[in-house]
Amino acid sequence: MNPHSKPAQRQSLVGVRLRKHADYCQAYANGRKRHSAAMSWFLAPQSPIKAGSEAPPAPRVGLTVGKVLGKAHQRNRIKRRMREVLRRHIDLMPQGFDLIFHPRRDVLTMEFEQLEAEIVRILKQARAEAASAAKLPAATSQAPVKHAL
Predict the structure, then answer these.
(1) Rounded Cα–Cα distance for residues 91 and 70 (Å)
(2) What letters, b where the CB count within 10 A reaches 16 and e where it falls short, cover 76-114?
(3) Does domain 21-48+55-125 have CATH number 3.40.50.1470?
(4) What are 73-118's pLDDT values in tens digits?
């Protein structure tokens, strides 16, 4: 058994998936694009729903698989495989952030364990970046930066 794989748990991605076009547009506008071997991905902070809420919003994930990756049955297979990996590792997703995956055609022919390892690596990297981004505003508010003209 792969060290990254977990026994099947009854977790679901309901309420965790990005569904609205406006949410995708907001994530693209507020996030940065990053690349990995099998896909590119965006990590963007969510806009706060309520100004007084103390708990960070739940993480959300989106998948975009364009027509360039193949016919509908191939694109659906890519999405099914990726959703299964994300369902297994939902606990690694960064709180208060949107994460969007853009897979490449290689994902269709990858072994499932290899795909799982790639997504777990991305989730861990995204979680680390989200943690450092949460610390960043507090550090910059203490000492203003002066720019030389």
Answers:
(1) 31
(2) eebbebbebbbbbbbeebbebbbbbbbbbeebbebeeeb
(3) no
(4) 999 999 999 999 999 999 999 998 999 999 999 998 999 999 999 9
Q: pTM (2 decimals)?
A: 0.78
What integer pLDDT is reported at residue 139 of this predicted model? 45
Give the domain ranges of the chain. 21-48+55-125
How far apart are alpha carbons 127 and 122 in whole angstroms?
Answer: 8
pLDDT at 122 over 90: yes
DSSP for residue 96 = T
- Beta-carbon contacts of 64 under 8 Å, excluding residues fewer than 6 positions away, are 24, 100, 101, 102
